[in-house]
Batch of 4 targets.
Target 1
Amino acid sequence: MNFEEFQNQSRLYVIGALEPEEVEEFERARRKFGKKAEDFITECYGLHEAFALSLRPAKASAAIKERLMSMVRARKEPNPRGPSSNRLIHPG
Amino acid sequence: MHRKTKKPVRAAKPKTKKRDRVAKLQTKRRAGVAIPKRRQFSGPPQLEPGAPSDLDLMLAIQASDPDALSQLYDRYNGILKALILRVVHNEAEADDLLQEIFMEIWNQAKNFSAQKGKPLGWMVTLARRRAIDGLRKKQAYARAEERLQHEIEQQPDAWVHNATEEEIVLGDTRILIRKVINGLPPAQQQAIDLAFFRGMSQREIAAKTNTPLGTVKTRLELGLKKIYDGLKELRDEL
């Protein structure tokens, strides 16, 4: 696989459209081209961003953010009984 | 091409080349005419001066700052919800997934690396994967399929949008990107749409569209290359 073919495959790879038998060959080429390949793949992920930005933004329900933030804050709060309180206490 | 009918007044306007539009803008700038600010084509929405960048917010989330997540949510919930909705075609499921995805952003933030791309790209990749997984798991898949099929029949090039020259000069990220996508033949748009928004493999697309596998591969390769090159050209132009 030359680099131009690798570029074509990379664009398919980032959107998950390579068939399983193509992935193996792609991974071999990826190793062969090294950093140049990694840089190109990173660049191709920009396609994801572009596809998302091509859509008209949708409005999320107001309750979603509230639920999300309360879950996040609950996880962040330390356990008032201390980290050891959940451990099993072995007798003896 | 199955394009929507343009409004008569706008349809009468002659098309101008990108080069001409840029020249027109430069003339206006030289003459001191105020030009509406154009959004960065591939960046986040325009930020107020002094507002933290996406990267700042990601770093703060990595340091477990809930306010940073709150700001990131305000900035991108609309874009991510649109993406999820495009995959699952169900408002309530999209809302649930949106919440799960932001929770995952919070939990997985430590895996984000600025060297591997921008925060929005990372979030979109994560959201897309999650939405497609959700779609596959749910029984609603068949119903969404039906709706999608209906959409394809009704509007084969669902991405098509009649961007007028005025809109392009005023500039809007979405319209600029859509213009690039809309430049593709409908068959290429459809193949990319099924691969990206439905997570379909080449074989699945071939079966769904009753097209030879080799043709699907060619459509995807050509279409993605044109979009990639088009976006690059836009970036250079701006």
Note: The longest helix of chain B spans residues 213-237.
Target 2
Amino acid sequence: MKGITKSFPGVLATDHVDFDIRSGEIHALLGENGAGKTTLMNILFGLYQAEEGEIYVDGRRVIINSPKDAINLGIGMVHQLFRLIPSLTVAENTVLGLRSSRRPFLDLDVAGKKITELSERYGLKVDPKAKLWQVSVGEQQRVEILKALYRGAKVLIMDEPTSVLTPQEVSELMGIMKKMAADGLAVIPFVTHKLREVMAISDRITVMRRGKVVATMRTQDTNEKDLAMKMVGRMVLFETETVRIPSERVVLQLDKLRAINDKGLPALEDVSLSIGEGEILGIAGVAGNGQTELAEVITGLRRASEGRILINGREITNKSTREIIEAGIGHAPEKRMETGVVPDLSVRENLILTNYNDQSLSSRFLLDRISIDRHVDKLIADFGIMTPGKDSQVRLLSGGNLQRLILAREVTRKNLSVLVTVCPTRGLDVGATEFIRNTLVSLKKKGVAILLISEDLDEILSLSDRVAVIFKGRIIDVVPTNEAKIDEIGLMMAGAVKTAE
Amino acid sequence: MVQDIIVGFLSTSIAVGTSLLLGAIGEIFAERSGVMNLGVEGMMIMGALSGFLTLTLTNDPWIATLVATLVGGVMSLIHAVLSVTLRANQILSGLALTMFGVGVSGTLGRSLLGVSAKGLPVVPIPVLSEIPYIGPILFQHDPITYISYIAVPVAWVVLFKTEFGLTVRAVGEDPGVADSLGINVYRTRYVCIFIGGLLSGLAGAFLSVAYARMWIEGMTAGRGWIVIVITIFSMWNPVRAVVGAFLFGGVTTLSFIFQGLGVGIPAEVLLMMPYLFTIAVLLVVSQEAVRKRISAPTSMYKPYVRGER
Amino acid sequence: MGLVVKFGSIEIEFRKRATRPRYLAYLVPFVAVIVALLVGSVLLLSEGVDPLTAYLALFNTAFGNPYSLSETIVKAIPLMLAALGTAITFLAGFWNIGAEGQLQMGALAATWVTLTFSGLPSFVIIPWTMFVAFAVGGVWGMIPAFFKVKLGMDEILTTLMMNYVAILAVTYFIYGPWRDPAAYGNPRTQLVAESARIPAILGTRIHLTLFVAIGIAVLLYWVLRRTKFGLEIRIIGGNKDAAKYAGINLFKNLLLVTLVGGGIAALAGMGEVSGLYYCLPKSFSPGYGYTAVVVAWLARLNPLAIPVSAFLFGGLLNGGYGIQMVFAVPIALVNAIQALVLFFVLALSIFYEYNIIVRRRR
């Protein structure tokens, strides 16, 4: 790829970027969100079209206008959020969009055979007949990879391939990647910050920042610190200082909680936890092991079938969300745009979404416009929310600003005792991430208890006072962070360790 | 004597249900691809009008049926352009289509009121219609009803056993995924909406050319809405739609019978039966859907946009 | 890059906007109406009618002189009320197409009150009629909401079906128990007592319900912007999940909004009975409830814009009736034009989100 330039309304995403990869090579692409690597790969895969620049495959100039073109050229993409359809089978998902050999009828049995062949070649275990919603996350990723291989991919782009895997699954994946490279395939994993993994697996690394290529080098010529500096342009502290506050007073207590998920299966089993004043409790675990349901049960968005939740000694189990909010629980949800805000309403209205009932902002029926405006102006200033104006729609805000808005709203609530925050820095660039983490730390200093649920183990370890590992809805163990060992935690996350009693 | 009544009842139920079945199969395709088309009522009535109009002009019922079908298809394209390409609100676009169809048919149909013509005759199928009981019920109908018989298995096979069907189902569940695999989401939806339009037009033709053999203003009388209910009831499966169409055909026939018999109930209440029955069916289906965790194609109502931040 | 449509060598691109210009809110409805009329002229031509003459006559009958204007306003009153009731439920994300049924039930209720309580003096019976009509329409409107929240039933179909039921119920009463034997060719109920009739502006048929309608429009606007309830409604309509997250009680709010919406629409029916016809005639509503959907949407669900939109459609209806005789064009044409307006409002709405760039390809 040469001189690739692409812009979106108001933003220059990639600026004359050059990138190349050879067959049999694993060439990692590194950069924060907004650095342009996602855009670059999307251009390679035909999802976007560059305004300037050329792409060459095997020395020939090519034009990639759509994923179809990319696939025809042997370029395949494995997405972070799997592009799979739950109600269809593995085989159906694999052949979707391809010409069947028995046109117009489907040829799923033929496909099944080819799938099995490929899976044996590279060690990708799957069952062609299984319906996708019944299958594990790791297997789903294997289906994603198979989809690309089935279509004859010679170049495999992998978007944050390890973000949903346990440490054991990660090494399995690395084995698979090495096998593919040995077979002559080229792999481009691109990531935000899994520096250790990138160092372990790749042959070359390219770092991007603010739409430009900062450096392309052989992995053996660099190290993690060097990479981080290139990514951000300044020395980044890998560990934010954890201020330990001795917390005697228990603020939030969960007692033998049980809950069912949307499929009717148990999501939480016998969960007991407690968080003290000014403490950050991190919940570590691979996505899909009950974290979402845990957050929902505490914030009143899901029923607990058994057990109790107490805040400051008061029971709030299965009470209405309104009561729970008034009892002092704040929630910065995982899906910011889908759950945390009303996209078509204004910034002003979204900043009072959870506390418009507050006496200082409204009376029994009426909203107090003047107080609200004052409050909103202060929040926008204090939290650095970049927006054209109070009245502009929240839909237009970027991810970082959206999260600033949500946190601004939750964190400044008067009676806040507990903050439940899920994946607070997912998809955010380093600047916003630092700001969010600092906000959490200053919140902790004020004595608020924080339940931190995140897929980013580094984040949990650097912020939390204690870490709880969740696996299949059970809390395996809770350890103080300064005594935690990463490999033990990894094993717990993968379910290899029985619940500590 | 009683057997005759039952046979007559079942046979009429099927006849009455034909337009419902055809409409439902068409709507199943549209909704499976993720677009709800509330314009069925409008397309059906325009089908009825254009079919009958063509009949009076050409005296050829087959051409009339063909024209009606095409008119339905063309009308559906309006909805397709609005909701797929222009990303407009599907609910309102469909409603507008119905209002348009009702309005235009009322305007253009004025001159056809009271005219009657020779439409499609009842064609008993040679050997099969002789079978006792089943014969008269199933095999003594007009050609369009027979078409609806064939349409069901054809639709089922297309939806579940062909490449196109897989594409449609994928587009309906997650157009983003389908798009990333090179499927043209817009084209798929256009095709499915068009199929829905054709079948609605055909359903309308049935009413004016085969069934009633005349034109009455507003002759669809809400059948289009019942088609939509049947679509939901069928869980988007053509085979189950047969049950729904037959059921509603039966209820409507019952209300005719009761009216004819002069049972003490006021005519208006009897006329309410199909509509109340609809609400009851919706009730039952919602319960069932919750239990079985079956739901509408996930992407319904949402316009699809690609490549945006 | 967004959607690109190609016509030969010309390329039209839809690019997502960063901000939304204010003038669009006025331009889009205006253009939609004009284009709809243009397309409608095609329909006229097919009926052998010269569109220019027909439209001029329509315009004249609708707005040409004080009498026309007053008649247009008369038609606008029920449209206003039905549209206000519809709009507020739409804002809550509830697709209530039941305004027609609600106004029929309102008319029914009003007839019942005036027939049953005929002895009472004006200042008692008129408010009482309004109250009962509002209550009945409100309950009628709440039923589909109840079904939706408790059973997940799609409200579009339930409200529609209930429309048919309401119309049939009204028909029953007109031909049955409340029939006025004195009316020959024109089936209707018995006349409303003198004291129960809403007075009209002198010299016209504009009944004072107009001021109730305008008052409600202003009130709704204020409620939506200044009250907690209004904010909650807009949150629910904007993002249901966020509403749950914020602790808003969906059930209570939805029931309340459909009660109010149904009640307001019912007042439309009541107005026709007590203020215009002084009885309940057959087919008194040429689909006001359905037109109301277009009225509301054209006004972008803004209560203050609805009276203007209603006035426009009242004129269309009035003019349509007027030219029926002269040009032998049935009133159904008006329905077609209304639908066209909705089509074009929907089609042009894409401009709110996207800018159009036309390019010539090399």
Note: The mean pLDDT of chain B is 86.
Target 3
Amino acid sequence: MIRVDQEIIIPWMKEGSSVLDLGCGDGTLLRHLQESRDMHGYGLEIDQVKVISSIENGVNVIHADLDAGLNQYFDNDSFDYVIMTQTLQAIQRPDHLLQEMLRIGREGIVTFPNMGHWKSRLQLGLQGIMPVTRTLPYAWYNTPNIHLCTLKDFEALCERLNIRILQSRMVNFAQKSSTLIKLMPGLMGEIAVYHITRG
Amino acid sequence: MPETIPADSVGIVTPQKLQFDQPLELTCGKALDNYEIVYETYGELNEDRSNALLICHALSGDHHAAGYHSMEDRKPGWWDIAIGPGKPFDTNKFFIVVPNNLGGCKGSTGPNTINPETSEPWGSDFPIITVKDWVQSQARLADALGIEKWAAVIGGSLGGMQVMQWAIDLPDRLEHALVIAAAPKLSAQNIGFNEVARQAIMSDPEFHDGHFYRHDTVPRRGLMLARMLGHITYLSDEAMRAKFGRELREGKINFGFDVEFQVESYLRYQGKSFVDRFDANTYLIMTKALDYFDPASEYGDDLSEAFRRARVPFLVVSFTSDWRFSPERSEEIVRALIAARKDVSYTEIESAQGHDAFLMPNEAYQETLYAYMKRVEVPAA
């Protein structure tokens, strides 16, 4: 099944273009892009079981650890889009990987859980506990999400790395988008979706 | 010996042989005027001859990849874990062809068969055969069997090298390429090991410059040493430790040079039994084919340029503890395929078995092959 954040980014990519999907899971999104958008691409995935699912799904999947770098596989400017959905927060060095994405791809698309969502703020600010939410369902001691950030944090990093934001959207799981999210994206958005390029 | 044939076995199989009278021009400049190829087949060819898989063997392999020759056989063919009804290379779906390569010693024309010019075994007069030559000879076999296009060409190690060469040299004659535990060319270390193996054989006084058949002998010690050395490179440190540790045969050290450690006993056994089933000249030829394999060399040393000719999707598989052809070597193949914009999937299978892992049962490995072979669509037999 295509996730909400994935649904948003599909129309952001031109039909017939090339794409690299970092953390492609079982290949559902790639398969969709191949079949209904005539796109050609590859996915990277670290988990053996998901790699096998991707193979069965008929997509190109490379069994690899994003933290080990992408240099051994991909040349500069070799893809139209490098996308990474809900993976940035689990990466050792998100700053390095963002730069890698825009070395390999002309444009990048990143989605991540917004740590600044009001539920997270309430849990940490009032209850004094590490947030556990729908988008961040793990306890602090077993979470794979080691680099969480808010929209402000992400945008500050983009500025520091000279990354230009082409467009962004905030969504929540249930209704995709709402007036509240539009008014207060940093507070109301559960998932952040950013379309970026080199500055 | 199997008491009964397992349900997922191809059962009792009989090798077949074909004679080819059209000369085969070889890469080395010589030609084989005529030759024979021994092969086995499993499953049935469908009506439009589109369900055939070619399986290419490695250094010490042969055409007997699955099933048994008789109920007296101790073990099935070398890739029985992968070939059979319901197995990844499913004989209910595919017609599988496994030839013994030229230069081999199991019935195809090679150093231990008769040279028509001398009416004696070829011995060291047998020409050096390359991976490219094998591909051409396998294509002739496909012609003879009426197979225009393989549904997939598949191989591990040196077999995987033949798969790559197929995709580059005859891109219209296959639909899928499965390259397992291979490398795009040998490293200096790989060639070094091969050279020690060759020296062991050639320096054996019983070698007689490769014409030992005349003297009714074989270079036993040399071939045994070559196999012992090779065997170490096929296993991982971890696998050897798990299998033998430093276990002593008699439970104590005897301060001598007889077999003391279990690993010594194992290697000697492997070496000795190899001598009974393999030909020393074939070993030399196979190691040379490995050393010379370098498909990029014809394309300005640019592997991705070589792969640009390919028209098929690839599956590339490596094993974590393989240090003979390590995962990094498979990654070179994958990188070149991506640069050439070819369809490729790659997985690195967790295994402690070293290079030999490609012949061993392993759940993730077998699941990977199953998953990929589902993509190889063919009409039923």
Note: The first helix of chain B runs from residue 131 to 144.
Target 4
Amino acid sequence: MKIKVYRWDPATEAKGRFECFEVPAAPHWTVMQVLDYIAENRDPSLAYYRHSACCHGICGRCALKVNGKVGLACATEVGTNAELTLEPKNGKVLRDLVTG
Amino acid sequence: MEEGPEAVYRCWQWAERAKVKQQFIKPAGWMLSGSGMGRALRQGLQETPGIRTQEDIMIVDLLKSGDCVCGAVGFHVYSGEPVVFRAKTVVIATGGWQPFSVTSTNSDVTCGDGIAIAYRAGAQLADMEFQLFIPTALEPECSRGSILPYLLIAAGLPVDVLDGEGSLIPTPKALQKIAKGSELGKIIADACWSQRLAEGKQTENGGLYLDFSRINRKPHFLVNTVFWLVLNQMKKLYRYGYYHSDDLKLWKKLMEERGKLEFALCSEYSMGGIVIDETMATRVPGLYAAGEAGSGVFGACRVADATTEMLVQGSRAGSSAAQYAAGSEFLCGDSGQTEQILQKVGAPLREGDGIDPLKSLKKLRAAADVGFGPIRNEAGLSRTLAEIRRIRGQELPQLRTASRSPVYNYGRMCALGEENLLTCAEAGVRSALMRKESRGFHLRSDFPAVDNSRFAARILAERDGGEMKLSTRKPEAHRIPIPSGSELTVCDYIVNQKLI
């Protein structure tokens, strides 16, 4: 599955960009599992909400935009999409997908 | 026991005012979701005057003035800015710890930060070998880590458990009777099923199967009716059709299509933690602990709801700490301490090549899976301990994050958390090696007997000149005599001691 992820470090970059990753995701993977895969196997510098994350839709803090729609990374399945676009939930970007 | 009803009722009232969905089941049952409990406690914080909250700060170490605790140092996880607290007392309520690959309804805070911080400040740890394992989903992937398999079994649904080769694992009738409706059901399942794991009859992922054949043989209309009733019952606490983020309709579809689903025995709770007295004080002046971070009343096996313990201990710790603070002055930390801790906070962000903290943490978790899981033996535990020591010696000083940004740097949080998890894991594994018997949730295939004559004692861990030192403490008998002699297995112990 092709994953397009928004990247921006406002401290060092003037504007954001998208970066693509190939991830061997199965339909029942969650977006959080996709992000974990990228961080563990492709690019550990990716910032996404992960600390203290419950991973079961309980704490509700891992919100982001998945194909333009706001949802929880841990509770959104990737499904059979060929491509997935992941963006921050709003414009207050601290780094990559993490917002203030 | 005495303070439980009042503490629970106070929390119940907070939940009511926070409009949390909750159920009271006569005579003394109380159900609410984890997020509901969070909202109730937040309501309590808001209603209580004089409390100022600061969120998303990772505390790295405590400040001390001589023997006394006098503050804490950490950093804000979003901004990365250092944070220094001066305090007359500190209460640690950071929850438990578990070092495994699959977390059972636990977040990454299970690195045992508070427990290890207290250990470094001079507190003792106890009962660290005891982890509570329960059936936890491995599939579907979106439910990995959910305790739904446990709930299906506990609800009394006609499901069976198969080993990795597809053979049924029976539970003896006498134990089935004890397990029904009892918290002891968890330990009975663990003791019966983990034998197959010891025989190497697990799935490729170290799990077992939940078999739905008996449900699938029942008439469709009956299954559909029961499922509809379950959905309606669950909606009293969760959104319709879901248990947290688990899609119950997907589960039903997979149960029908596949007939079985893989699960594993994963840790949902750690019985051990910081040694505290009845006022929740540690042996370090000014330092208190409450809840799962403390080695509370449960010892080898949690036999009741941890929520009540948490509420009572939290309340007591707060009162004790307030009383201590009223008779104390603000102290200045020993010279150079703050700078030393801040240096540690910045270490993972330093320039230069190093080891990825996420990968290192994964290795530690894999090592714990191998030897410290639901069934243990000398060889496996020794391998795990060797890997813990290797990671501490070779990898921990070399941890470097890929991004040097202090802003929301999860790699840094993992690097700092790994030191804590290594401390907890070393205490747990070394205690498990020392305890050459089976007791509670500590099951050893090479020592299956419960040996009261040698091991009816707590194992303590403390820091001694930079090294971890273990010792034992015999319990004092009060109303109930300390058991003597031995039993062939934990299951025999449960039956013969008439624990229910």
Note: The mean pLDDT of chain A is 95.
